[in-house]
């Protein structure tokens, strides 16, 4: 290779390395700052006790439970509905104006600001369906917020499965549903679940939707049913940062670090599930 081309190649690699560092450094800086300022707050009392004296003392256990409850409800609502919609669009619906309109609507819904979903949840679930500000209303709102992401990722995963798999199964006498259930879904499931969990982990950090539908600033007790209001870490962070005076800084950063750990844990679960399923298919 001529020296001039080798030099250009090295400059190109160097530029890519610099851009990669520029993308990674801010992430590491955010995590490092949260760990440095929030680590002193991570005591057993902080993680297992309710707040006291209007959030200025005590812990964040009700907020952790509320966040996990909202996330679990979001999974139960959005995952089956999103995957079922994707299966219908890819495997059953024809390529016509109706399906094109549906896909366009899904893409547009994925870009709608979360505060709009919050107002939608307030109008439909809280006021119209009389659920009130509750765990159920918040989970339904977050489920609708996550639904376009899950449908899009599941649809892409199904489209990535080669048509040869479908044709071979049908040629051997399998029905269309047997082909989907035993051939197409196992091949697409790792990517579908990964995309779904990543979308749900994003919903776990949303503040605006639960502010209108589910979360309260200060509830020291745990919810006894899905009709109860809950504390949640995103709204708790908003409250201690803007609404509640005299909150120690380490408590706010500690809550942020716990929320980051929950979201990161969901992402790690998605990676582990994808890896395990792919290894199982290769055996």
Q: How many strands, which pairing sense, and closed or not: the largest β-sheet?
A: 2 strands, antiparallel
Overall spatial form: globular
Physical arrangement of strands within the biggest beta sheet:
1-2
CATH class wording: Mainly Alpha
| CATH architecture name | Orthogonal Bundle
What is the string of helix and strand elements?
HHEEHHHHHHHHH
CATH topology: MetI-like fold
The total strand number stands at 2
Class of secondary structure makeup: mainly alpha
Low-pLDDT runs: none
What is the count of structural domains?
Answer: 1
Radius of gyration: 23 Å
CATH superfamily: MetI-like
Distance between the termini: 42 Å
Provide the β-strand percentage band.
under 5%
Fraction of helical residues: over 70%
Instruction: Write down the overall mean pLDDT.
Output: 87
Number of helices: 11
